[in-house]
Backbone:
């Protein structure tokens, strides 16, 4: 794989897509719909890993988003169905918290997919990377915390009377 070159894929459920990984921006074009986004998670999470391996992990991470889309949609639906019944909070706050919980959960799912694809090399690469900050720990703790806290918050609370 070469940076900024499209990589054509098809998800396990048949959705065709194209993945382009740049230094700061990534593009996933699924079924003709372009989804540009900054690669903030990948840039920080893969810090210190040699370029070739970092690029491979980033492609797998982006593919992981595509492969885990049905799971992410189920999570979004669950958040929406439970969160909309919360009567004690403005809808804008419920939307922000739900969106953060959903995106963090989807990032976790994509990185779990990456771990599965990389196998034992995943841990080996991170042990050798020696980043300035423990980005892996910050990623896993932060995304897990946002997912769990946001999801549990939307599930709890006072309901409509």
Residues:
């Amino acid at each position: 794989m070469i940076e900024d070159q499209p990589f054509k894929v098809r998800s396990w459920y048949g959705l065709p897509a194209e993945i382009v990984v740049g230094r700061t921006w990534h593009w996933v074009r699924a079924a003709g719909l372009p989804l540009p986004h900054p690669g903030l998670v990948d840039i920080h999470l893969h810090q210190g890993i040699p370029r070739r391996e970092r690029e491979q992990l980033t492609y797998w991470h982006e593919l992981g988003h595509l492969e885990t889309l049905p799971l992410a949609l189920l999570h979004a639906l669950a958040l929406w169905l439970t969160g909309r019944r919360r009567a004690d909070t403005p809808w804008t706050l419920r939307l922000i918290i739900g969106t953060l919980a959903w995106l963090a959960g989807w990032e976790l799912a994509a990185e779990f997919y990456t771990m599965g694809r990389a196998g034992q090399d995943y841990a080996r690469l991170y042990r050798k990377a020696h980043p300035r900050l423990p980005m892996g720990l910050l990623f896993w703790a932060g995304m897990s915390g946002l997912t769990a806290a946001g999801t549990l918050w939307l599930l709890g609370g006072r309901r409509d009377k």
User: Anything to note?
Assistant: Strands lie at 7-10, 16-21, 25-30, 33-38. Helices lie at 40-45, 51-67, 69-83, 91-118, 120-129, 135-155.
